[in-house]
What does this fold into?
Amino acid sequence: MNVHLKALLTHDPETQLSAKARAFAARPKQLFINGEFCDASDGGTFASEDPATGRKICDFASATAQDVDAAVRAAHAAFETGWRDMAPVARAALIFKLADLIADNAEELAQLESLDSGRPLNVTRVLDIPFPVEALRYYAGWATKLSARTIDLSLQSDAYHSFTRREPIGVAALIVPWNFPFVQVAFKLAPALAAGCTVVMKPAEQTPLTTIRLAELVIEAGFPKGVVNILTGFGRPVGSALAEHPMVGKVSFTGSTQVGKSIVQAASGNLKRVGLELGGKSPNIVFADADMDLAIPGAANAIFAGSGQVCVAGSRLFIQRSAFDKVVSGIIDHASRIRIGAGLNRETEIGPLISDVQRRRVSSYVDAGRKAGADVALGGSALGEAGYYYSPTVLVGTTPNMTVQREEIFGPVVCAVPFDDIDDVLPLADHEVYGLASSVWTRDISTAHHIARGLKAGAVWVNCHGVYDPNLPIGGYKQSGWGQELGQAGVEAFTSLKSITFRL
Ligand code: ADP
It folds into this structure.
């Protein structure tokens, strides 16, 4: 690695953060309950670290089960005493205001997100902050458009008048992972508020920084006390206590399939509604007739963007045999030119993994693949002296029974697998556990339709990958999830449907 690239691997928050972001990042952080900042009930704290250097950023309050109870009660009171019945136009105005405040503070938030999550500034500036602004604006619009239907009864239409109503579920617990911290907050917060729910949010313990900054903007926007509560802390006790709490009506969770299952169990006490966005092992299918100028960088970005820490990452790459060598060498060439570095460096294209734990996990998968007989065509090792970097890795010669090809790695590791024709690839692409996303690259429109119909996945991208829009619902098949986020489905997920019937 040349000296220039080596220098990219570290950054200096002291000189590279704006004065505003630096001052915010340095302050110890508190919980946000009922419109006020407070310490954890037992005074506990934990530190969030900078994944580019391994250095501590600052201390956060570590919430307890008692804090969860206080936050849920505050959210419940706010729901019962105003938010539920507030005119939709007034709720919309507050959500629009919050979006505007995020936009006004976008540069600071982008810097904080890059520091805490390792995501490059040139990505957080164009995606991680602007997309939440758009998601909030989109859902602010839904607050005034949610409505239901008049129903003509099938048996006695002239004896009764029936109609439906969409009503907010109540208190929603929003449990968020570390890979897109601020984006994931917006995917849940915006529809929950628009639907008329009040919320208790728990950011991931690795990446709470921007969510706590959001609490300040919630105050500035003028939300009534208790509508938005934010608890920093760990999966246990915070996430689990939220999932169990009898006054929580809905839990919306994004994270691992394993934790998703424990949330379902915890939620069973009061049979609360559960929305889950879980893991994936998404197939990416390249046919020999594809436009390779699109497909090769597209397939590389599908796995290497975000260092592969993306639930929809295209981690299983199926390539039609006649194009296999060309596509693999194209991806290797593309990946070798990606600038890996610390989040705050302007040239960085992909950042570090989130933690030492995550890097060890990725390494052990690749080692297991090697042992099982896979060939490492690119990468396969950690990078740099400090921070949690791992090089983009291409494995060939993997088989469906190898863990690298079966399990979600959540790192920049792709298994390239050849296939012969359209009929072979669908059974290969089908995963026994996951069905989150998929993509297909071809110029043949009937091949594209055939594969798009046949894939057992909640999202299919044709000649593209990872296209998200506030109006486009996304959710997993199989053990990749329950329900959808975004779009109309995303806001309806925070409502209950009531039917009302009048005798005429
Ligand atoms: P990842 O694999 O992305 O780290 P996790 O599923 O471990 O995902 O974590 C996602 C979120 O779920 C985090 O906010 C984490 O603190 C929280 N969490 C972890 N364990 C539990 C649990 N048992 N109950 C509820 N939330 C949890």
About this structure: The pocket of adenosine-5'-diphosphate is lined by residues 175-178, 202, 204-205, 234-236, 239-240, 243, 255-256, 259, 262-263 (CB under 6 Å). The chain has a mean pLDDT of 97. The first strand starts at residue 31 and ends at 33. The CA atoms of residues 204 and 410 lie 16 Å apart.
